[in-house]
Amino acid sequence: MGAIGNGNCIFLASLIGEGQGSRWKGVIINMDLQKKNHDSNPSGVVFLQRVDDYKITQARQLRTTMTPAEGLFWEHVRANRFMGLQFRRQQIIEGFIADFYCNKARCVVEVDG
Question: Pick from 16, 35, 40, 32: which is nearest to 83 by CA?
Fold first, then answer.
C-alpha cells in the first residue's frame, strides 16, 4: 500500500490481484486537520450513541471475518501507523456499520473487495 498527498488530501492505494489482472484500488481521504480545532471526541460518534446488543454482536463478528482487502487496509492503519491517526474497525454509526472510522479526521472508509 502506498500513500501520497499534498498536506490536505491523502490518496491511499494498494495493488489488487496479480499479473495482467492486477489493478490499483484507492481511497482519497481529506486530511484538513490543521484548520479545525478538534477536541478528543469532536463528533460523538464513538462514545455518545446508543447501540443495541445485536449491532454490537454483528460488528464484533465482522471484525473477525474481514475480507482480504479490509485486512490489507487494517494492517497499514492499525496502531496509529498512518499519520498517527487512530482508526476503528467496524464502527457503528447511527445504526450502520462502517468498515473503518477515524474520529479525529471525521473520516469513514468503506473498502470494496
Answer: 32
Task: Establish how many alpha carbons lie within 13 A of residue 31's alpha carbon, considering only the half-sphere containing its beta carbon.
Answer: 17
Whether pTM exceeds 0.85: no
3-state secondary structure of 20: helix
Q: Is 98 helix (H, G, I), strand (E, B) or coil?
A: strand
Q: Residue 12: beta bridge partners?
A: 3, 27
Q: What is the DSSP letter of 85?
A: B
| pLDDT score at 50 | 83
Contact indicator for 88, 99 with CB cutoff of 8 Å: no
Low-confidence ranges of the chain (pLDDT < 50): 1-9, 15, 33-39, 41
Say if CB 21 and CB 109 are below 8 A apart: no
Angle at 55 between CA 52 and CA 60, to 5 degrees: 130
- What are 100's three cell numbers? 473503518
Contacts of 93 (CB under 8 A, 6+ apart): 45, 49, 101, 108
